[in-house]
Amino acid sequence: MSKDDKTPVDENQLIAERRSKLTAIREKGVEDNASAFPNEFRRSDFADKLQESFADKDKEELENLNHIVSVAGRVMAKRGPFMVLQDVSGQIQLYADKTVQQDIKARYGHWDVGDLVGVCGPLHKSGRGDLYVNLDQYELLTKSLRPLPEKFHGLADQEMRYRQRYVDLIVNSDSRRVFQLRSKIIDFIRHYLNQRDFMEVETPMMQIIPGGATAKPFVTFHNALDQEMYMRVAPELYLKRLVVGGFEKVYEVNRNFRNEGLSTRHNPEFTMLEFYEAYADYRDLMDLTEDMLRKLCETVLGSTTVTYQGSDYDFAQPFDRLTIIESILYYNEHLKIGDIDNLDSACAVAKKLEIPLKDSWGLGKVQIEIFEKTVEHRLDNPTFITAYPTEVSPLARRNDDDPFVTDRFEFFVGGREIANGFSELNDAEDQAERFLEQAREKDAGDDEAMHYDADYVRALEYGLPPTAGEGIGIDRLVMLLTDSPSIRDVLLFPHMRPE
Hints:
The protein is an alpha+beta fold and 499 residues long. Helix content is 35%, strand content 22%.
């Protein structure tokens, strides 16, 4: 719509008008030996710092102070002689008197909403108490050729927000806040681990054998080596190789790739934190995780109460801890231990729940299917679930008292898994047997089963100290802490089907 009559204006017409202005600026630049896209302007001030520093000054104080500032950013609105400039930190108003307006028109054919400008001048405050910069010096830095979405619409179309994130970030302050918080969350985690003598490392993204998780990998091809390679599904096996090598505390904020479906919780590439500590077990990591997440909420959010999609979760209270069996019985009051402690009765329960079963599944896998169907979505408060069956935990250490289960936990909040950790399997012969079982399952048609990794078994034969490791889904954690319903809301450039 035009600013005067509010009648619809074709976007192509607006683009043509802006291109015409740019052409005129270019032609004038040739005459004046000036660039249409100058790069000499330097700013000294940011909107948020100015708003903060001069909030308590009244109109007369600012006039007497005559404080000269230099700001740069995007024009977001125009109201008569006033404009709103937005930089990375926030917004501040600009004021152009009639003489300046006439000069801007003569030089640039008017500034449009979306143009990037640099201005210098004294700070003032309007009668309404709004801070503004009086334009003494001014320059068009970049001509915006496409109009921004109307302010009363914003960028409401979800798919357009994800496809054109650059526009979304310009017009939606909520989107900017999410990604600023994401950066602070990752920065806090790094600081927390560094303070505890963990060393940040990097491991290969392209691997000859994809390992560290039961997931379907992406396949690529290395021309020089003349061989297939895989995008990593997890960095786990490489990080544990480093522990074998003597780096006793390591972590990686890593990008993983899994050739699986898209959903509000899944993206083909995603960010994980994985960390490993020698001479520790899964209980140590549960304690560390609880402390880290509580302090993360306190530091980054300013509160230990996290609100997600209308529900509040209290990170100040001790986190709940239940075994798989305890959680199934707790959330299925009609079941008794005898209903799920042997294969036949557990299969009968699963069939009543309409869970499709495979002949190759053992008791542990059936128990996990019952857990995922009846329990997982009900784990609202911060909860650690422990004692995962060995059958579904190919890399975790068996429990010394009950080898049917492993010393493993998963962490849930709001019915969603956030973290997975365990005492690491450091018995090379046991690991070799489990890899062989995974290989048999892959041969039977399981695309997500692991490959046999002979080099990793060899590394274990040199000796992995008693070690605990954990992975935390950064994207899901950010979703929780920013109240974002979809993983696409916390990924700057989520994967989309081609337009």
